[in-house]
Amino acid sequence: MLDRPDFPTNEQVEKASHEQLARWYRFLPSGNTPEQKKIMDKIAKRFKASGGMTPEISKRIGFGGTQ
User: Fold this and answer.
1) Contact (Cβ atoms closer than 8 angstroms) between residue 42 and residue 24
2) Burial label, 11 (beta-carbon count in 10 A; 0-12, 13-18, 19+)
3) pLDDT in tens, 30-60
4) Which residue pairs, CB below 8 angstroms and at least 24 apart, start in 34-39?
5) Which residues contact 36 (CB under 8 A, 6 or more apart)?
6) Mean pLDDT, all residues of the chain
7) What is the Cα–Cα distance from 29 to 3, expressed in whole angstroms?
8) Exposed, middle or buried by CB within 10 Å (0-12, 13-18, 19+), for 66?
């Protein structure tokens, strides 16, 4: 079990949209536990495979994560 409620589960990462992956990729901390680090690695892998940070996605999520 994750000790941080802001970290997604593996299932959430599998189902996440490109935009949601971008938000997690940009704004989640790197992780403190081995499980969190595995989730961050999965987010990064899926995010990059889906096209990575495009100018459009970057503009939509913004620096603060809101539109």
Assistant:
1) no
2) exposed
3) 888 899 999 999 999 999 999 999 999 999 9
4) 35/2, 36/2, 36/4, 36/7, 39/2, 39/7, 39/8, 39/9, 39/10, 39/13
5) 2, 4, 7, 30
6) 87
7) 13
8) exposed
- The angle at the Cα of 21, spanning 17 to 25, to the nearest 5 degrees, equals 170
Q: How far apart are CA 8 and CA 3, in angstroms?
A: 11
Residues present in the chain in total: 67
How many CB atoms are closer than 10 A to CB 5?
5
pTM: 0.83
